[in-house]
Structures are given as structure tokens and as C-alpha cells.
Write a structure and sequence with these properties.
Shape: globular
Order of helices and strands: HEHEHEHHEHEEEEEEEEEH
Radius of gyration: 16 Å
Strand order of the largest sheet: 2-1-3-4-13-12-11-8
Distance between the termini: 16 Å
Largest sheet: 8 strands, mixed
Structural class: alpha/beta
């Protein structure tokens, strides 16, 4: 019954700033029975109980597109002042950081850290780029994103050449390995970042999304 009440009261807004496969997330939420709508303006963000910030491609292009969308200030208000739960996915996760080696623009700075290149790290420089395919996650204990029924090492789909390096490792929810361990999922309070693609990760991804909505 608790899940039913949460489902009725929740409205997920997927931030559509011209970068990311918005329809893939709307399709996933529909399949899960969760109400979700795209947001293309500050007004459409105002009724959100949860936010999804997708992103693909180059860091600076994503940040510039968000900055020019007219939604940046409202997102800052909702997340930083109103404490609306948000999940950044793929480049959307990287945008949560302070900066990225991929570009010159500042990130959102919601979770302290820097986005770094696998190619610039001597440990991973000779590996194929991008890091692409299925990978196990090593999950920290007592995180709301993974239910007690979830597998101990859930598998998620990745496609990226840059990774989030959290300044405070207490913010790291899960790690993956590509020549070295890297921060795959981070969270600080109500703010979450997911480098992998839950919309492409079968039941593991669906459960993560459901947990995000149910427990936040």
C-alpha cells in the first residue's frame, strides 16, 4: 500500500534540454507504471516531485545546452533549495560535478568532484575506448537505490570514456572496474548520479529507478 500511495503522488519530470534520449526514459517509466513527463521550460519543472537529468555526448555541449535552455536557474532552486530528488544519468551524472577534463565549462557543482578521462590515466590509457558493455557493480551497504531483494552484484550497461571522481568517497554508492575501480554511482542526500544506463539495463535498471522514486 505504501508503494501505491507513492506512485499516485509522484510526478517525475525528465529534463529535456535537447541532449539525451528523453523518450527512452518516458517509455521506461510508463512500463513501470510511474507518471513521468518531459520538461522543456521552468514552468514545467515546477510540479516535479522527482527529476531525471539525462545527457549524452560532449560535456561542454551538454552544459551549454542546459545553460541556454532557460531551466538552469529553476533546477538549481528545486534541487538546492527545495531538495527535490534528482538523478543525473550518463553525461547527466558528469554534469553534477564541479568540472570535467572533457571541457572548460563549469559543472553544476551539486556533488563535489571532477570528471576525468580514462585515456589520460596511465592505468587505463591502453584500453579500448569507450568503455562499452555490461559490467558488475560493487554496491556500498545501506543505500536506498538497491533493495534487499536485488542481487549482490547487479549488472549494468555502460558506454563512456570519462568517469566521475568524487572528492568525498563517502558519496560513492557503487563502483565498477575498467582496468581500475571507478565511481559508477554517487549520491549526496537527495542528489544521485548514475554513469551506467538504467534504461538499457533490464530488471536491474528498472529496480534502481523504482527505488529512486520509492525511497526519495
Amino acid at each position: 500500500m505504501a508503494w501505491f500511495r507513492k506512485e499516485v503522488l509522484s510526478l517525475i519530470r525528465v529534463v529535456d534540454y535537447g541532449v539525451g534520449n528523453i523518450q527512452a526514459f518516458l517509455t521506461l517509466f510508463k512500463r513501470l507504471g510511474l507518471e513521468a513527463k518531459r520538461a522543456v521550460s521552468p514552468l514545467e519543472l515546477s510540479d516535479a516531485t522527482h527529476l531525471i537529468l539525462p545527457g549524452v555526448g560532449h560535456f561542454d555541449h551538454a552544459m551549454q545546452s542546459l545553460n541556454e535552455s532557460g531551466m538552469r536557474a529553476e533546477l538549481d532552486r528545486l534541487v538546492c533549495n527545495e531538495k527535490i530528488p534528482v538523478m543525473g544519468i550518463c553525461v547527466g551524472m558528469q554534469m553534477l560535478a564541479d568540472s570535467s577534463e572533457e571541457g572548460e565549462l563549469k559543472g553544476l557543482g551539486w556533488i563535489p568532484g571532477k570528471v576525468k578521462s580514462f585515456a589520460n590515466n596511465p592505468v587505463t590509457a591502453k584500453l579500448p575506448m569507450p568503455h562499452m558493455g555490461w559490467n558488475n557493480l560493487t554496491v556500498s551497504p545501506n543505500t536506498s537505490l538497491f533493495s534487499k531483494e536485488s542481487d549482490l552484484e547487479p549488472q549494468f550497461y555502460f558506454l563512456h570514456s570519462y568517469y566521475f571522481d568524487a572528492s568525498d568517497k563517502q558519496d560513492v554508492v557503487a563502483a565498477a572496474n575498467y582496468g581500475m575501480d571507478f565511481d559508477a554511482i554517487v549520491s549526496r542526500g537527495h542528489i544521485y548520479g548514475v554513469q551506467c544506463h538504467p534504461e538499457k539495463s533490464h530488471h536491474w535498471g528498472a529496480q534502481l529507478i523504482k527505488n529512486f522514486v520509492e525511497y526519495n
